Amino acid sequence: MSSEALNIHRIARPPALPLRRTLRPLLRDPVNALGGFARQARGQVVRLGLGPFRPYLVSHPDHVQHVLRRDWENHPREGMLWKPVERLAGRSIISDGPDWESARRIMQPLFTTRYVASLTRDMAETIDEGITAWEPYARAGRWIDIYEEMSRLVSKTVIRVLFGSKISVADAERLGPAYGVAATSFASRLLLPFAPDWIPLPGDRAFMRAVKTIDEVVMPLVRNAIREPGDGNDIISALARARRGEEATTAERRIRDDLVSIYGASVETTAVALTWLWPILDDHPEVAARLYEEVETVVGRGPVDAECLPRLTYMKAVFNELLRLYPPGWILPRRAAKPSRLGDVPIEAGSTLLISPFATHRLEEFWDRPEEFDPERFAEDGDQERRHRYAHFPFGGGPHVCIGQHLFFAEAPLMVAGILARFRPEVRAPRPLTPFPAASLRPKELVEVRLVPVGGGAAA
Ligand code: HEM
């Protein structure tokens, strides 16, 4: 028998889950269902029967590494999530191919630790103003919808990073809600990725109106920045400088698309992470106490600034563990451009591969007590060194790895330390919280927080 024939015998068919086994759990609780499918397959490739749509769920860290890093060019971001995203953000840093490559090259230097450090003072100032605005709530003992408040605070901070002082308060206040409408109103396009653009779907009109508002705000700022880039370190000025020399309308379009992409990629992800945090701390008083102590030592009652950040080491471990259990980027779909193989399993060209950090982060094969929240896993002397690089990948990996990690690890600690220097949170939310499959993973249920001033109780 030829070696080729032997090879054929070695090719395995992936275990497949038929529709009758996938449908009910997916309808009830889709994100946990995905985690369950990966667990049943013990991290091996499994094909999900979803009627005519039969994606592969890829959760083994070796396979994730293969798709995101080793063979990334054969696994572009196409179809599914990506097509509706393109209607909002164009061919930008969050697309693929040559447009992505050019945008990534230009933006990479703007999100290094060093560059982000140059933005920290402005971020800290905006965050401090936002937290001060909560003082009346705290004095009145009012419960606040923490997702809404976190989104507002993160949005203000990101707008400051993107536009510096070039945007008016009124325009900044239009941008956040318009983006929110645009991002949620393409849900039907997300569910029907194969519907052609000319077929009207629910949400299309709201989407178009929201995009119009975004463009009314962003385009004049882009044109001004191109005319006079100045030497500011805000992202719009830096992009205008970097694209000097390109044809004007092309440069305008690209800068607009990249700003919209960065806004989208940063606000929702950071806001949802900072929503999951509070119920988790409430459920783990020993972790909360240690975190409060660290903030007390590092920040005291003073303002939080760039110098505090490297000393908030426990907070970093808390965030890493939070992003393990509730990764905002919970699903990273890819399409196989050519036939390939994952382990023993042949993958046909055109197949959709679902990579889910949520599923991989909870595999028993790679995590001890995977469902337990334990920041010690990420302590400086923890077992990080021994762990597979792709057992924990909340920021993705390979050439598309999140460009905003350093921004997140500056912005989020500034916010949390700023809050904890002044307040202690009380939490009102049902348990267990259900992860809801929006563009970023958020709790399905309402999470409310009441901020109690440190050293004094809330008024009744
Ligand atoms: C908790 C916060 C965040 C999480 C969990 C997160 C997660 C991710 C993940 C998983 C990817 C990879 C996507 C893929 O492979 O298809 C990604 C890419 C990206 N992220 Fe983030 N992100 C976060 C915050 C941010 C922030 C603050 C920014 C702001 C700059 C940002 C900007 C981007 C961009 C532009 C990309 C696309 C990079 C590329 O394809 O070259 N993210 N992010």
Give the overall form. globular
Strand line-up of the largest beta sheet: 1-2-3-8-5
Kindly state the number of beta strands. 12
The whole-number mean of residue pLDDT values reads 91
**Level-2 CATH architecture:** Orthogonal Bundle
What about the largest sheet?
5 strands, mixed
The H-level CATH homologous superfamily, spelled out, is Cytochrome P450
Low-confidence stretches: 1-10
Unique ligands: protoporphyrin IX containing FE
Distance between the termini: 83 Å
Total helical elements? 18
Task: Identify the CATH class.
Answer: Mainly Alpha
Return Rg in Å: 23 Å
Subunit organisation of the chains: single chain
Residues in β-strands, percent:
5-15%
Structural class call reads alpha+beta
> SSE order in H/E notation?
HEHHEEHHHHHEHHHHHHHHEEEEHHEEEE
According to CATH, what is the topology?
A: Cytochrome p450
Share of helix among residues?
40-55%
- Count the domains: 1
